[in-house]
Amino acid sequence: MATKDALIAEEGKGGVGSGDIATFDKNAEVVNFELEPKAIGLTKEQLEKYRNDPFWKPVRTILFALFWLAWAAMFAGAIAIVVLSPKCAEKQKPDWWQTKVSYQPEKISWFIMDFVEFLPNFI
Q1: Which positions ≥6 away from 27 have C-beta within 8 Å?
Q2: DSSP H or E stretch at residue 24
Q3: What gap in Å lies between CA 93 and CA 77, rounded to an integer?
Q4: What is the pLDDT of residue 107?
Q5: Rounded CA separation 3/27 (Å)
Q6: Facing residues of 21 across strands?
Q7: Same domain, 49 and 28
Q8: Which domain range does residue 26 map to?
Q9: Where is the Solute carrier family 3 member 2 N-terminal domain (predicted)?
Q10: CB neighbourhood size of 56 (10 A)
Q11: CA 79 to CA 40: how far, in whole Å?
Q12: Are the beta carbons of 36 and 18 closer than 8 angstroms?
């Protein structure tokens, strides 16, 4: 038999009488939530009252037009920034030492001769 502990869901203003309950099954280590949907905002009837209101209708129209004008202005500004921005500098030809993988002197005899000269000092 599974042992169940009744827990109160702490989402929103849920309490003992609100119907928001979560149950925890210790053996299966599972939490089952039983949350009732809560109405958020205005109902359809409340919104219908303001749909054709003489004050809100022009306000909605003006805000709708301002939104699209602002959107078009930002889009045009982005295009203007791209078009008017300075071009990239031309790529310069790299120096000879920047094109090679490594530098290898042609004659290393000078190093060997210096080494041979100093070798008797260390012996």
Answers
A1: 2, 3
A2: strand 21-25
A3: 36
A4: 62
A5: 7
A6: 8, 34
A7: no
A8: 4-34
A9: 36-101
A10: 11
A11: 41
A12: yes
Residue for token pair 């749909």: 51
- The per-residue pLDDT for 81 is 96
Say how far apart CA 12 and CA 58 lie, in whole Å. 36
CA separation, residue 72 to residues 61, 69, 76, 103 (Å): 17, 5, 6, 57
Burial (CB count <10 Å: 0-12, 13-18, 19+), residue 22: middle
Q: Tell me how far apart the alpha carbons of residues 50 and 119 are, in angstroms, rounded to a whole number.
A: 101
For residues 25 and 52, membership in a common domain is answered with no
Residues 106-120 have pLDDT tens digits of: 566 666 666 666 666
Q: Specify whether 77 is located in the same domain as 53.
A: yes
- Residue 14's CB: how many other CB atoms inside 10 A? 17
User: Measured on CA atoms in the order 104, 109, 112, 117, is the torsion positive or negative?
Assistant: negative
Predicted structure pTM score: 0.41
Residues in the chain, overall count: 123
Read off the pLDDT of residues 96-109 as tens digits, 9 standing for 90 and up: 777 877 766 656 66
